[in-house]
């Protein structure tokens, strides 16, 4: 049965720990800086097709090659715009959390949806860069590295604060092993890069 507006206002609000706000602030700030650097390179390429991006290091490490791929504009516009808009919004959310503002459950679920989309999209972009495009973008990798802990920590926090319903077992696993998940994902990505591009950083 639908809730009366007065009942909606009395629904419990959730206050998360400052640790989540700090994690979100740091990872979002890193992602925002990398996205702005990518935007600068993208604009330079628009202005001069012969421009060599600052991260064109060798045939395997090249922002220019990645930007020229169709995957760089998956939704019909440069993916960079998603980061330029999304990460500042995440910073705003982080500040709200650090201010200890009680927030409704839908707010936390919205945050969860955003970081889940970012994580899934980064996983897809990683697979495309490594196994399809055949080139790595250093700034993109910084974004990937920021989104992984952002997703894991937000998910762990939402399980802990009850925004995501979970049993005692899942709560304990997420509370105790979240950092292992981050390390494992980093290791998988690193291993794929080493296997696919053994000479990427040596020329």
Could you give a short description of this structure?
With 203 residues, the chain is mainly α. It has seven helices and no strands. The model has no long low-confidence stretch (mean pLDDT 90).
Give an account of the 3D structure.
- With 203 residues, this protein is mainly α.
- It has one domain (16-196): VKOR domain (de novo design (two linked rop proteins), Up-down Bundle).
- It contains seven helices and no strands.
- The chain has helices spanning 5-9, 18-47, 63-67, 80-98, 105-133, 138-160, 168-196.
- It starts with a helix and ends in a 7-residue tail after the last helix.
Portion in strands: under 5%
CATH fold topology: de novo design (two linked rop proteins)
Main sheet? none
For the record, what CATH class applies? Answer: Mainly Alpha
User: What gross morphology would you assign?
Assistant: globular
Distance between the termini: 64 Å
* Structural domain count: 1
Quaternary state of the chains: single chain
Q: Calculate the mean pLDDT score and round it.
A: 90
Quickly give the CATH architecture: Up-down Bundle
Rg calc? 19 Å
CATH 4th-level superfamily: VKOR domain
> Helix and strand succession?
HHHHHHH
The helix-and-strand class reads mainly alpha
Number of helices, where a helix is a run of at least 4 consecutive DSSP H or I residues:
7
Low-confidence stretches: none
């Amino acid at each position: 049965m639908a809730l009366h507006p007065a009942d909606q206002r009395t629904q419990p609000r959730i206050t998360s720990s400052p640790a989540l706000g700090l994690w979100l602030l740091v990872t979002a700030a890193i992602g925002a800086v990398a996205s702005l650097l990518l935007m600068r390179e993208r604009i330079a390429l628009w202005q001069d097709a012969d421009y060599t991006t600052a991260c064109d290091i060798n045939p395997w490490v090249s922002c220019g090659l990645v930007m020229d791929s169709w995957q760089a504009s998956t939704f019909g516009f440069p993916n960079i715009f998603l980061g330029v808009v999304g990460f500042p919004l995440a910073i705003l959310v982080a500040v709200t959390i650090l201010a200890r503002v009680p927030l409704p459950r839908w707010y936390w679920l919205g945050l969860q949806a955003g970081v889940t989309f970012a994580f899934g999209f980064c996983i897809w972009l990683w697979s495309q860069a490594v196994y399809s495009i055949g080139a790595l973008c250093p700034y993109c990798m910084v974004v990937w590295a920021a989104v992984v802990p952002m997703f894991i920590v937000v998910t762990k926090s939402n399980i802990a604060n009850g925004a995501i319903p979970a049993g005692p077992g899942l709560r304990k696993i997420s509370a105790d092993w979240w950092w292992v998940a981050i390390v494992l994902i980093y290791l998988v990505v690193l291993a794929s890069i080493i296997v696919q591009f053994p000479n990427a950083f040596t020329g």
